Every structure is written in C-alpha cells, then in structure tokens.
C-alpha cells in the first residue's frame, strides 16, 4: 500500500503483536494508521450470545482501521492478530500530513476504501438474501481478487479456515462445511488434503 520507507520518513514505528494480541479495541478512538508488514489481522465483533463476526481479514502490505481514523469516530470493531504480526504504526496527525503532501497516496487510499465498501455492500446483499452455497462461493471469489490468494496447479488456494468463512458470512461452521462439500460435488471447488481450492 504505502512504502515502509515513506511511512518511516513520517515517523512510523514497527510494533510486534503475538497471536491473539489486540491491536485496538472496539469503542476506542483511533490514534494511528496501521499497515501490516507481516502476519494477519482480523477485525471482529461479538454479538450478545458471544458469537464472533469477522468484519474483515487483512494481510501483508494491507492497512486496516482507516474509516474511523478519517472520521475521528470510535472503532466499530476490534483488531486482533490471527498470527504473530509486525505492523507499521503512524500517528494520525503524521498520517494526515503524509496524505496532504503525497496526493498519489491519497488516491490509493481512496481506491482501497472504495474496494472495501464495495465488498461490504456485496456481502451485505449476499448474507441477507442468498443460500449458504452462494454466500460461500461469493466470499471465495471476492477473496481471490481482493486477498490475492495464491494459484498453483490445483487452482486458487483459499486461505480461510472454515471458521473464518462462517464468521465472514454469518454462517455456522457446520453449514460452511456442508456448503463446501456441495460445491465440490458441483465442481465449483476442490478439496485436496483438507485445503479448499477454486
């Protein structure tokens, strides 16, 4: 997204987060811009029954948590390390200065936010109106383009666990497993060594 050199020029520092460590909490005001150097971060909420809903999953060179940063509003979800992660953190005021002085970066940020907004609107329609198989396939197809899943001889390796697919689509894990098996029978997906390919 933004080069590490440019972020560091404006005062960004690298922070390490252990697996399951919280980067920021739902309900807190944002103070920094965050960009992943390595690892994986999820943004999530829990409903009253304690069920997790994943708002998004972010990987190397992706940023997260910007909308509240721009609006100076409280975070609507928490950010948690899915695995050991290294993140560049840039103070909000320095981030705004970086954008003012680098218009091309501002355009990149706008494109990134537009992509996420598009994904949210597509998934909201899917979750409210479609059957589980359709939801799972739509998420996977979006993941191929947005998350840059790697392709090999078997196809695109879908780098989501069954639990993550459930949490991203509002489905129970058992339903996700059934949907994936049904999609495999229809030839839409392949399951090789318990890994899902498209």
TrEMBL record:
PROSITE patterns, per database record: CNMP_BINDING_3, HTH_CRP_2
Domain of life: Bacteria
Spans traversing the lipid bilayer: none
Keyword Cytoplasm tagged: no
One of the record's GO molecular function terms: DNA binding
Domain HTH crp-type: 130-198
Record-annotated Cyclic nucleotide-binding domain positions: 17-116
Key words, A-Z: DNA-binding, Transcription, Transcription regulation
Gene3D superfamilies hit by this protein: Jelly Rolls (2.60.120.10)
GO CC annotation terms, alphabetical: cytosol
One Pfam family it belongs to: HTH_Crp_2
Matches recorded under InterPro entries: cNMP-bd_dom, cNMP-bd_dom_sf, Env_Response_Regulators, HTH_CRP, RmlC-like_jellyroll, WH_DNA-bd_sf
Full protein name: CRP-like cAMP-binding protein
Organism expressing this protein natively: Flavobacterium circumlabens
